[in-house]
Amino acid sequence: MTTSTLESPFKPLPKRRGFDLQGASFTTLAGAAALIIALMVAVIMGNIVLNGWSSVTWEFLSGAPRDGMTRGGIFPAIYGTVLLVLLMVAALVPFGVGAAVYLHEYADQTAWSTRAVRFAVNNLAGVPSIVFGLFGLGFFIQFLGAGIDRALGLDVVYGKPALMWAALTLAMLNLPVVIVTTEEALKTVPREMREASLALGATRWQTVRHVLVPQALPGILTGAILAISRGAGEVAPILFTGAAYFLPFLPSSPTDQFMELGYHIFVLATQSPDIDATRPLLYGTVLVLLALTFLLNLTAITLRARLRASLAGRS
Amino acid sequence: MKRLLLSSLVAIATLGTAPASHAGRPIAVKGSDTMVILGQRWAEQYMNQVPGQIVMVTGGGSGTGIAALINGTTDICQSSRPMKSDEKLKLRDRYQTLGQEIAVAKDGLSVYLAESNPVQQLSLDQLRAIYQGQVTNWKQVGGKDATIVLYGRENSSGTYVFFKDNVLGGRDFSPRVQTLPGTAAVVNAVAKDPNGIGYGGAAYAKGVRDCGIKKDAKSPAILPTAATVKDGSYPLWRHLYFYLRKKPEGDTKKFVDWVLSPAGQQIVIQVGYFPL
Amino acid sequence: MSTIRPGIDSVARRRIQRVREGVIEWALRTCAFAAVAGLLLIILFVFREALPILRDPATQKEASLAGFFATPLWQPVGDVPKYGLVPLLLGTLKVVVVAMLFATPLAVLAAVFSSEFASPRLREALKPVIEILAGIPSVVMGFFALMVLASWLQAVTGSSMRLNALNAGIALGLGVIPTVFTVAEDALRAVPKSYREASLALGASPWQTAWTVSLPAASAGVGAGVLLGLARAVGETMIVLMASGNAAITSATVFDSVRTLSASIAAELAEVVVGSPHYSVLFFLGALLFLVTFVINVVAGVFVERLRRRLAGA
Hints:
The structure holds three protein chains of three kinds. Chain A is mainly α. Chain A has ten helices and two strands, in the order ααββαααααααα. Helix content of chain A is 70%, strand content 1%. By secondary structure, chain B is of the alpha/beta class. Helix content of chain B is 38%, strand content 21%. In chain B, strands 1, 2, 3, 4, 6, 7, 8, 9 and 11 form a nine-stranded mixed beta sheet that branches. In chain B, β6 (149-153), α6 (158-166) and β7 form a beta-alpha-beta unit. In chain B, α2 packs across α10 and α3 runs parallel beside α4. The relative contact order of chain B is 0.19.
């Protein structure tokens, strides 16, 4: 190839003195897009905060709903959400972390079985949430639950919407999040640490348990927190697997139904008996849910940032 | 950190072992959205009178309640329409019983119009033509020149089925009916839309006007009131039902008996429906 | 951190340890295959409950593949149930098209801005905005569309139906923007600096560089982002359930209410008797949704692979 004099393939800039109109308008357009997005987010948040702020009192957070949801508080919904999410995490983290550890430490990266697992994880993440709801109904309640009832000779104890089934459905929904973030976290542990541990005579599992996982803990926590945040916000999977609009008691057993913040918002917004009267309660509930998810996301982000900072200092 | 983990695990573990916080088995009541306020008020009052007894009321539509009855996930089904024969057959397939129907209140299905709408009465034929999509403009029934905006209920609603059977004669709704999940949502939509029309239980009509219904073009227009529903002169009156799998017994029987007693029927009036 | 005990003692301890290691590895492998099992179970159970439509003659009397397209109406409850899929398919299409037309230009342009033009400070300011948007649960987005957006849109457009495809589409688009933005921005940032520097050295302006060099280089990633956003839009339930009016109308205008596949499942599943034709139809809709999003996700995965290969090779 002959070397020619460097010729710009680009059209020369317009001759106007020092002002590139095309460039400026394109840049402005791109900047405007970012600005529009920011504005819309501000409007949504502003609307919710302004309308909901006055409703969120201590009584609101700790009391039960009264008078057809026009007064009182949403404590049962908060309680139900927390319980749901705790159960979900208990089911989710062992499987998610275990799977990630396997993928990172034990698996043969070229084997088709490993690729199958990664394929499954990626595509599980893309399944619509309502399909998870269908699955929860069709598998957990109708198949497993009814099966347990039949095996134990019970009437209808496990084969109906319940806290445990909703938690398991959400756990499946969030499995990819935990697996991916845990694997990312494991990858950040320097190879030297792993090799040093093995050189000292530790077995693979000992290395994982005493070196890798503790080092990767911030990342694992990030994943768990992100999963919690998503679990608290998703409504479609729990529509038929356990959420209820008004229960006069707090759930005390895994086979109970439960009230939940997201579900409460949905029902209140679409089916409340007196929409104007329940509006303050509704906005308050939205604000509480939003605050909860943001707090969780913020914690996850800070953890991740701190993790990255400590990485930069390491090795 | 470990302590937090441990304590939350303990909390979860005690979930399964906690003694039942409710004495006596809770009674599950599920179904009609038309009846859900009524059901909740009954439950509240009854729970005050019988401490330790829990009654849980959820809505979702009469169809949801009937399905729950057949699927076995509720004790009492609230329904604003009678159970159909194929539903009873499904119940029999599963539970070898045709179910127990108990009428607990009366309702007048009200047609909602915006308060600003000059139209104040419609005949059953006109109503049918509107909801089938044959009449699309208010001026065709004596109102302004504006497109009629149709609001209705989801197909899980007993009110939907009742309207379809009794007003449309079993024929299909126009696809342009915006389906809303609850009566209150219908009322809210019509209240905000001067060209809207909706339907639902009479007890919900706040901020909208009840439409006078004429049996045919020559009859007088009747509004749903206690008198017209009681004597049946309001063309769209209906019973509200409890359905159970079998004859009520034990705690359930006590609750049903109470609902049918003067105390329970008083609540019916308070909520805005009509006693038996 | 507890101390590591080197296992250099007796042969017996070694053997026990090996067995233990084997058991642990087996347990971890089971965890990993739980993901595969989960996906397979979903496919199995959702498709299984939908099978009567294709196999059981009793079900087919009421609901069959032919029946889905034989009637223009979706009226599953009544003396003669009608399961016309066309209004549902059209409704889903309308909402998704509005959402993607709204979200894609905004998200991609914003991603270009963030990676090509913005100062590091602006970039750091934009990131939390997108993360906040991503953190808004879909039920809250649906709530906002139902209570606030619908009224604004009705005031601006004068449409007769307050809850319509436009309302649901814009809200859906808002929900999808973070997905498209994040993937597109990652793809743009992954373009090697050398490309940009070479372009600038040849005399191009920043915007010419962005438009003719960076964006094409990242096109596979941007495409993947758009596809992932599309998959999310197709499967989304709560936003359309609350904001679209849920009327199974077949028309061309976005100012009409629509009924989507996902919202139909959510609205009707509670009232079906297990095993009835209506139940099977709803699971069929679920299977359909799964297939569509699955295909889109697989294609997006292919795009990502291509991007990775291209950038690694260059």
